Amino acid sequence: MRIAVNTRFLLKDYLEGYGYFLSELFRRITENHPEHEFIFIFDRPFDKQFVFGKNVIPVLAGPAARHPLLWKYWYDIKVPSLLKKYKADLFVSCDGFCSLRTSVPQCLVLHDLAFLHFPAGIPRIQLAFYKKYTPQFIRKANTLVTVSEFSKKDILAHYPEAAGKTAVVYNGIKPVFRPYSWEEREAVKEKHTGGKDYFVYTGAIHPRKNLVCLLKAFSLFKKRQQSAMKLVITGRLAWKNESFTESLKTYKYRDDVILTGYLPLEELAGITASAYALVYPSLFEGFGVPVAEAMQASVPVITSARSAMEEIAGEAALYADPGDHTALADQLMRLYKDERLRGELIAKGKIRAMAFNWDESARRFWELMEQTIA
Predict the structure, then answer these.
(1) What is the mean pLDDT of the chain?
(2) C-alpha–C-alpha distance, residues 361 and 341, integer Å
(3) How buried is 11 (Cβ within 10 angstroms: 0-12 exposed, 13-18 middle, 19+ buried)?
(4) 101: CB partners within 8 A, 6+ apart
(5) What percent of the chain has pLDDT above 70?
(6) Beta-strand (E) ranges in 69-227?
(7) Residue 262 — φ and ψ, nearest 5°?
(8) 273 in Cβ contact with 242 (< 8 Å)
(9) Cβ distance 35 to 54 under 8 Å?
(10) Does residue 75 sit in helix, strand or coil?
(11) pLDDT in tens, 161-212
């Protein structure tokens, strides 16, 4: 078979959600199925690290699809011509978009419907594109994959046409997220916080991640506890981050907040594993990868109620209403004061993290690809 894959999110030194999902799945799928050819379609110059094997044919198909007009051109003109040229049996797209102008069977991954629930965090022209074309993509796709039962239920509630062709494939957790020894943790803390304990948030900085609420909760924690605890925030400044950056300018505990920016994977794993706890107050997620990564690294988790994170963490996390910074501060205090509770969450988290395995996800995804072609 010849399987074409949309790989425009495989970006060197800039992998995030879609990119990690693509990389981890297709590194395994191409290795496990050397008898098949894979056409990797990039929209900008690519790094050779993403050509996973001899059965991968990388194709550069510009221009770079970076806004709605170019999305439309790339998916409906460039992609169909390449599918025809390479005689593809299947097209896989993991970013929520597919081609409306091809008869080749398509397997579409739609991670979540955040654009419907939190439209304020998305540029207006992109939001209009999502609203107009997402239902068309769902109808066009032969198979629809999402990353949690929470997300599947949400998709079916808003788009009943997805019934009968929607399946769940969980994200896995990269092995680099592991428990650190005491010496390793101390070295990381010395580098980033002067040896002090810290709460950590990992992910991009934009409104849906709810970081202004986190700042307010951390402020209450500091007032109540008078501790030397720090707050480390990793990730790039994404679109519409002004509310967070402005809040930080006048923040009373600014000296206790460390912004690292985007970090290489190894360094991110170290910062996660050395934290006192992960705090992930996102308003909405289809999965919540940092939660799973922290559990595997033996780090307790405080996260948001009423989102996919409850499915992912189960009883291995503390939850707070994401709209209530006082409730979040209460959970910070609760964890800080109760070492036994912290130990229980770490133990439960290590067991829960075993459910998220990239090898199993790749096996399941391959089954769905075969079904799509059949």
Answers:
(1) 95
(2) 31
(3) middle
(4) 75, 76, 77, 80
(5) 99
(6) 90-93, 106-109, 143-146, 166-168, 198-201
(7) -70, 135
(8) no
(9) no
(10) helix
(11) 999 999 999 999 999 999 999 999 999 999 999 999 999 999 988 888 999 9
DSSP 320: E
Residue 13: the pLDDT is 77
Query: Would you put residue 249 in left (φ > 0), alpha (ψ -120 to 50) or beta?
Result: alpha
CA dist 71 and 82 (Å) reads 15
pLDDT tens digits for range 267-319? 999 999 999 999 999 999 999 999 999 999 999 999 999 899 999 999 999 99
List, in order, residues 6 or more apart from 331 with CB less than 8 Å away.
302, 318, 319, 320
At 2 the three-state DSSP class reads strand
Phi first, then psi, for residue 320 (nearest 5°) are: -145, 150
Contact 233, 247 (CB under 8 A): no
Contact between 88 and 50 under an 8 Å Cβ cutoff? The reply is no
Alpha-carbon torsion angle 359, 362, 364, 365, nearest 10: 170
Phi, psi of 39 (to 5 degrees): -100, 110
Domains with residue ranges and CATH for the chain: 2-172+357-373 (3.40.50.2000), 182-353 (3.40.50.2000)
**Calpha distance 367→272 (Å, rounded):** 33
Structure tokens at 14: 């800039």
Q: Is the peptide bond before 58 cis (omega within 30 degrees of 0)?
A: no
- Tokens standing for 307? 């989102």
The token duo for 125 is 């022209």
Paired tokens of 310: 């409850």
pTM of the model: 0.93
- Under DSSP, is residue 232 helix (H, G, I), strand (E, B) or coil? strand
Helix (H) or strand (E) holding 27: helix 17-32
- DSSP letter at 303 equals E
96, 137 contact by CB (below 8 A) = yes
